[in-house]
Design a protein that fits this description.
Elements: E1 2-7, H1 10-22, E2 26-31, H2 39-56, E3 60-62, H3 68-75, H4 82-100, E4 105-108, H5 118-132, H6 145-155, H7 166-173
């Protein structure tokens, strides 16, 4: 069985890849980039993922382009609900790639982070899976949170300090 794993960054992929492989699934990654700002941050995350993927023999599809304007245009005036929009876009894109690639399932490293809205991700993923025709594989990867962090530090992987969008960067660093 083949599964396409949406990957937001290398550190967040460590535990999910390990777990999915232990379940006997053939895992391939998908790096979605339109939500990651600024562009230099996007490149750092992609470079870290490329190095990690090479080390663990993980094939990864890297989204082309960089639609900063599209992301911001769709979030502006809806900033308080931006995460739902972002989850939807990342999961929809992953599901469509999974369908084209004839994967049996798709899932996301978003289910690994204790900072994400877990139930919202699950609901959106299942809805998209039904509409696209590729089942969303749900698993609560948060149980491996500490193991993934320790492993990423041990490996010296680049570890970003915010989710990805310019708004989350502001929330992380701007102190009134």
């Amino acid at each position: 069985m083949k599964i396409l794993l949406h990957i937001c960054c290398a550190p967040c992929s460590i535990y999910p890849v390990k777990f999915l492989r232990e379940q006997g699934l053939d895992v391939m990654g998908y790096f979605y980039r339109h939500n990651i700002h600024p562009y230099t941050e996007c490149l750092k995350r992609q470079e870290a993922l490329e190095a990690y993927a090479k080390e663990i023999n993980l094939r990864v599809i890297y989204q082309e382009g960089y639609d900063l304007e599209g992301f911001i245009r769709n979030v502006v005036f809806r900033e308080s609900n931006r995460c739902s929009y972002c989850y939807h876009e990342r999961l929809r894109s992953t599901a469509l790639v999974a369908k084209r690639g004839r994967f049996d399932y798709f899932t996301s490293t978003l289910l690994y982070s204790k900072f994400q809205k877990h139930e919202t991700i699950k609901t959106i993923g299942e809805s998209i899976g039904s509409s696209v025709g590729v089942p969303f594989y749900y698993h609560d990867f948060r149980v491996g949170w500490k193991d993934g962090i320790e492993e990423s530090k041990h490996m010296g992987l680049y570890r970003q300090q915010y989710c990805g969008c310019i708004y989350s960067e502001k929330e992380r660093y701007y102190k009134k």
